[in-house]
Amino acid sequence: MVAGAKVRVMSPEEIAAMGGGESPFLHWPQRSTLFAEREMRLRQIAATGHAMGDYLRFMADLAREQQKRLNDFPAVPLPDAQAIDTAARRGLPPLPAADWPRDPVWHGVVRQLAAALRPAAPEAAHPALDRLAEADDVFLERQADALLNNLNTGLDLATAPVVAAALQVYWTHMLLSVQQHHTAQGQPIGRIDDEGMCPCCGSRPTASITRSSGDAPGQRYLHCSLCGLQWHMVRIKCSHCLGSGKLAYQSLDRADSPEPADDDESASGSRAATAPVQAETCDDCGHYLKIMHTDRDPFVEPVADDLATLTLDLLVSDTGQTRHGVNFMLLFGEPDEAPPPGGH
Hints:
By secondary structure, the protein is an alpha+beta fold. The protein is 38% helix and 12% strand. The protein has 11 helices and 9 strands. Helix 2 (34-46) runs parallel beside helix 10 (302-308). The model is unreliable at 5-20 and 335-344 (pLDDT under 50).
């Protein structure tokens, strides 16, 4: 069941005061741990007897292979200093997901992921992995175009998580390479005009996460679904419409939790207000995005915990809310028939 809660959200001034000053705008992914931490969290959740345990373990295997590819990713073309500066002046991302000229090196990553996953993959996943093993470059590029432009046309949902996983490795590598090569000239990535989209690649977030330690306790960061960058957004704004007047928070209630008395809803409301994962809903625009709280569970990970709380998406969607974020590890829809992997 979904429990609702009226939660008092601190003002930006209160949060800043708690943090001791201005929050850093960006939190960068760590090359050596980004996907490894995701793998660990997926396995941790699966070990609890989660109903999606088999799928979570398969995604953990995928995250493990992503980490291996990120560790050894080859050099690829990057935007130069002038291109980064121009993007910043125009309020645009320097590595735009929809428009960046993709280096074909990512095709090899797809095939490597598929080959590494197949031996231990569930039987149901074999056809999709085999399709990727046989896929030509045209098929892979068409799948990437569909994924990065949020299109269903021609999208093969069964192969999409592995294709997206390769793209995540590619974009994370480019992001970290830009950081490494251009920090001497100042912060290489700044704010863009659409603050609800990733300032590096312009992709939608998977979820948001609050930080309980460091320089900015209590601050919220949106987590990019593609490159893994996290950027700050104050907690009084809807991540879709930027409104602040009609925000509410929903969470899952444990099935074995005692039902509150008819005249006492405080118990369920209290549980909702302290849940580690909530859906932040906005009645102004009808969209929602999950928010995860590290002060309530220090091990939450945006992609893994988003997958594990799929039931919350289904129940919130039943109320008419539309999800603002995207999780490439589990996509839904009714796409047109995908072209054959070897066809044009």
